[in-house]
Amino acid sequence: MKNTEYVEDIVANLLHEFSELSEARRPIEAQWRLNMNFMKGNQYCEISPIGDVEDYGKQYFWQEREVFNHIAPIIETRLAKLGRVKATISVRPYSSDDADVNVAKLSTGVLRTISEENNIGELINNSNIWSEICGSVFYKVVWDEDKGVTIGQNKSKKIIKEGDVNLIVCPPHEIFPDKLSASSIDECKFLIHAKIYSVEDVKEMFGIDVDGHAYDVFSIDSVTSGGGLGYSASTQRMSQVSRDNSVLVLEKFERPTNDYPQGRHVLVAGDKLVSDGELPYVTEKDGGKGLPFARKVALDDITNFYGQSVIERIIPLQRAYNGVKNKKHEFMNRIAMGVLAIEDGSVDTDNLEEEGLSPGKVLIYRQGCAPPRMLNMGSVPNDFHQEEIRLESEFVRISGVSEFMRNSSLPQNVTSGVAISMIQEQDDTRLSMSAESIRSAVKRVGQLILRLYKQFANNNRLKRVAGDNGDVQVIYFKGSDLASDDLVFDTDNELNETPASRRSMVYELIRMGMFRDDDGKMDDRTRVKLLDMLGFGNWESARDIDECHMIRAERENIDIREKDIMPIEYDNHELHIAEHIKAVICEKSDLMYIERLDGHIKAHQMMSFHVDSIAASVDASAQM
């Protein structure tokens, strides 16, 4: 009985916490819905005093209410620009020792392989859409026992797999922090992940039967909000609809406290407790347990846990722009269609209102009355045009998306190459905050991946890993081989420089002779590196041969720790010697390893000297 009461208290407390957090977040959710509607084109709506997003109708039947959507192309341009931020994760070694270097290479390869298996590129693009519209998005990194390679079956014939990392993109409306004033996840004592599932999905996931209820979820439908005189137009809108036979699943992650030294993880489906225990994941640098989430924002707001979207700043401007354009059209309608002044009782007004003044129409008016006349409506005031231009420039200043970025065309009267470069740099600077948030979130995701592997991957695993040089290797490893706490994560921000600018810089350095030796020559190893920098990794077959020699030399540096290795006559001794000398210089403590490398280098030198002597003898004989 006590156990039943204890379970009921846990469920009731979690539902009560969720209800309070939901009520506190209602104004923020209303802003998200408003942003979505303006992005879709439903721009004649507002947040009501009770916190709902409501559409407002026409004031007059002749009122123009077309939508001239500048928000959609602005967001699409920002997404295209942010899509260049690939945020490739690489791991820097803690020191220059070969052991740290090898662990860094292994961790980098494994991390990139896992990222590709989870299709992290598509996840980043999807998360960018959420963050640009709502202002924030979250990554959830968990260990899924149903992923990975099948290793057998249990007694009930259930398939057992080795388990693997699962990356999940969580929209902001699914994440509830303990306080809205937290500026980051680190300041939150707990997070609640709430999601709506069907009754069947809950049965499949948790093996329990739960009664379904009706819950409000986001949905897209059509609304007649646009149009003008004589016609109407429908647009899409984001609304809330009721979904029947659904279950609310709440997952609470609570940091370690005095009462719960290992943290707490509570999972509730509907009104039933699925699990209650300690935090399952080691996510902190010191080996402590924490929250398996990463946060990404479009624009940071230190007073709010959720970020801010640029749409929030553009909405007043978009409303003003729609108003100016529609009023211009209303004025033009009056000029084109005209406004008739008639004497009372002089004509059949019903016929005139129905048919208007069609070409060739015979207009009959009462004898002795003044004939109808058209009022002079003048022309469209120039103030409308000036206000339209001013609002368009305001879009650029507020959104940070210039005409150069949005229209792929240069502004008028800009022909200088320096000016064009400055405009491009300014565009990239305005997006640097969003780009940096992407990199920070991916960096956090990389840390979580390696720490979960270190925690759960206790047995040897087989992974196909692609190296920096394009070679593909099949390696065995286990979680303890990934020393994530001693590594630094580094990502590249492609907004800082384009591929064309990098190539131009390399060409300039080549012209300056920075890659040539004292004799003005460029060795094969430098040439291979330059081809990589220019993006011509597989451009010529000669490069493939040189790279194979370098890869073989790097493998020899690893294998020679266990045994002596002799060169073969087909080795490119110059490239091998350079790679082996680098390994000797980086090594500090393993004297036996240095001694073996020294012998190996001398063997390369002897074989190279022997080959050169034979070549010199052949040349001498040919000259005689």
Polypeptide structure, described:
This protein has 624 residues and is an alpha+beta fold. Among the domains are: 2-59 and 97-310, no CATH class; 498-623, no CATH class. 45% of the residues lie in helices and 19% in strands. It has helices at 2-24, 26-40, 71-82, 98-117, 120-134, 199-206, 310-337, 349-355, 382-399, 403-406, 417-456, 499-511, 524-533, 541-559, 573-586, 591-623, and strands at residues 45-47, 53-55, 90-92, 136-144, 150-153, 159-161, 164-170, 175-177, 190-198, 213-228, 231-254, 264-269, 272-277, 293-297, 340-341, 373-374, 461-466, 472-477, 488-490. Strands 8, 9, 10, 11, 12 and 13 form a 6-stranded antiparallel beta sheet that branches. Strands 7-4-14 form a 3-stranded antiparallel beta sheet. The protein has a two-stranded antiparallel sheet with strand order 1-2. The longest helix is centred in the C-terminal third of the chain and has 40 residues, at 417-456.
Report the principal-axis shape.
flat
Largest sheet: 6 strands, antiparallel
Q: Count the DSSP helices.
A: 16
Write down the overall mean pLDDT. 80
Distance between the termini: 108 Å
Helix percentage: 40-55%
Poorly predicted regions are 538-543
Structural class: alpha+beta
**What integer value in Å does the Rg equal?**
34 Å
Give the beta-strand count.
19
Topology:
Elements: H1 2-24, H2 26-40, E1 45-47, E2 53-55, H3 71-82, E3 90-92, H4 98-117, H5 120-134, E4 136-144, E5 150-153, E6 159-161, E7 164-170, E8 175-177, E9 190-198, H6 199-206, E10 213-228, E11 231-254, E12 264-269, E13 272-277, E14 293-297, H7 310-337, E15 340-341, H8 349-355, E16 373-374, H9 382-399, H10 403-406, H11 417-456, E17 461-466, E18 472-477, E19 488-490, H12 499-511, H13 524-533, H14 541-559, H15 573-586, H16 591-623
Antiparallel strand pairs: 1-2, 3-19, 4-7, 4-14, 5-6, 8-9, 9-11, 10-11, 11-12, 12-13, 15-16, 17-18
